[in-house]
Amino acid sequence: MAQSLPMTSSPQVKRFDWSNLGLRVASAVVLVPAALAAAWFGGWPYLVLIAIGVALLAIEWGGMSAPVSPTRVAAAVAAAVLIAVFVGYRGDFIWAWGAILLTAAGAAVVARGVAERPADAAFGVLYIAPAALCLVWLRSTNQGAWWTMMLFAATWAADIGAFAVGSTLKGPKLWPRFSPNKTWSGFIGGLAAAMGAGSLMAWISAFELNIWAAALIGLTVGLATMAGDLWESAIKRRFGVKDSGDLIPGHGGLLDRVDGLMFAVVVMAALRLANHWGWGH
Fold first, then answer.
1. Contact 60/53 with Cβ under 8 angstroms?
2. Confidence at residue 68, expressed as pLDDT on a 0 to 100 scale
3. What are the phi and psi torsion angles at 2 (to 5°)?
4. What is the mean pLDDT of the chain?
5. Among 24, 38, 63, 113, which is disulfide-ready with 250 (CB 3.0 to 4.6 Å)?
6. 151 and 280 part of one domain
7. Which of 212, 213, 171 lies closest to 188 in space, CA to CA?
8. Has residue 45 been placed in a domain?
């Protein structure tokens, strides 16, 4: 019987390579406008963007969780998530959440015999599908375009603020066991940047939000972004990989770029639901 890799066997995470900063910026210049445009205009371009993202994330998940036979696991995870996404896009969100549970079980069955831990296929569905479905739902709500823009703004601000402040001030490590490069100074800087981004979005847009509620939303989304980043670091450590893939030049895999967003969008969807009930006006 194959034995699982011990958590201590994962490779050491290397420090940021300043030499590829230009490549990272170039990749962002291409990807960010495409994501913003699709989210702003919505409709089928937005659905296609999410579907492509789901497929790529599933491929990376298959490569990490079932390196001996990644294709079958990736296909099972992608199909399971996309079923829920398409059901949600039709407006049947209750059915879509139920579909996540059923298709996750189905992915585990498909992965039997080719994956060391078939349950990892189900976990991949439960990891990816809620974020994808929340992206669909958030955009479909009243002022959904602005809410999605706020999500992106707060998430990216948290990432950039954490990197900038942490690289400048350094100091004590946040959670060295799983992510040796992250610091408490970067954590605080990222939260401050996310709060600022939330407040700015409320100020420049037609949001029915007061600025203090927007700052609180930014803070909460920032916390979720940090949590998602740390969670993905723990997952990579479990699977014994340094990056989820090499899809994006200078950045690694897609999961390495959207790990924080995957947690943040679920939190933002909950906040949007609370706002629908009257909070934050």
1. no
2. 85
3. -70, 145
4. 86
5. 24
6. yes
7. 171
8. yes
Mean pLDDT of 218-241: 93
Where are the alpha helices (H) located in 181-250, listed in sequence order? 184-204, 211-239
Residue 134 lies in a domain: yes
Q: Do 156 and 280 sit in the same domain of this protein?
A: yes
| Selected residue with higher pLDDT from 168 and 12 | 168
pLDDT tier at 205, thresholds 50, 70, 90:
confident
What is the rounded CA–CA span in Å between residue 46 and residue 54? 12
Q: What is the pLDDT of residues 109-167, one digit of tens each?
A: 999 877 778 899 999 999 999 999 999 999 999 999 999 999 999 999 999 999 899 98
Claim to verify: residue 150 and residue 165 sit in the same structural domain: yes
Total tally of structural domains belonging to the chain: 2
**Mean local confidence (pLDDT), 26-37:** 78
One DSSP character per residue, 160-200 reads: HHHHHHHHHH--SEEETTTEEEEEHHHHHHHHHHHHHHHHH
Contact 98, 88 (CB under 8 A): no
10 domain residue, yes or no: no
| Phi-psi map region of 141: left, alpha, beta (phi>0 left; psi -120 to 50 alpha) | beta
At which of 102, 121, 140 does a domain end? 140
Is the domain of 34 the same as that of 73? yes
pLDDT for 11 equals 43
- How far apart CA 83 and CA 43 sit, in angstroms, is 17
Structure tokens at 173: 């490590």
- pLDDT tens track for 247-270: 665 556 889 889 999 999 999 999
**Do 65 and 73 form a contact (C-beta atoms < 8 A)?**
yes
Domain containing 56 equals 28-140
